[in-house]
TrEMBL record:
Species whose genome carries this gene: Anaerobutyricum hallii DSM 3353
Keyword match GTP-binding: no
Sample GO molecular function, one term: acylphosphatase activity
Enzyme active site: 18, 36
Keyword DNA-binding in record: no
Signal peptide stretch: none
Entry's family note: Belongs to the acylphosphatase family.
Catalysed reactions, semicolon-separated: an acyl phosphate + H2O = a carboxylate + phosphate + H(+)
SUPFAM superfamilies with a match to the protein in the record: Acylphosphatase/BLUF domain-like
Name assigned to this protein: acylphosphatase
Ranges of residues in domain Acylphosphatase-like: 3-96
Keywords of the record: Hydrolase
Lineage, highest ranks first: Bacteria, Bacillati, Bacillota, Clostridia, Lachnospirales
Length: 96
């Protein structure tokens, strides 16, 4: 079980990235959250089995994440962080 903290830079707000990321999380059965930050970036934490988190990151890193032509991710800052108790985090959600 691994957990990653991710900051997405680029055209990432107002283009459906939070919705797209939530779909990736359901597809790969990972938990965590995603939210917009005031500086125009999107922050997220993703936790799950190593290979599922890696598949999530591969899809997020694609040219057109989720087939959305409006999302443009220029850079992802990815950091390993400690996992949280699975009982405390049941799914993946967008934070506001």
């Amino acid at each position: 079980m691994i957990r990653k903290h991710i900051i997405a830079h680029g055209r990432v707000q107002g283009v459906g990235l939070r919705f797209t990321v939530t779909g990736f999380a359901k597809k790969y059965n990972v938990t965590g959250w995603v939210r917009n930050l005031y500086d125009g970036t999107v922050e997220m934490e993703v936790q799950g089995l190593d290979h599922r988190v890696e598949l999530f990151l591969q899809e997020l890193s694609s040219d057109r994440p989720g087939g959305n032509r409006f999302i443009r991710i220029d850079k992802l800052d990815i950091t390993n962080i400690p996992s949280v108790n699975v009982a405390d985090e049941k799914g993946f959600r967008a934070r506001y």
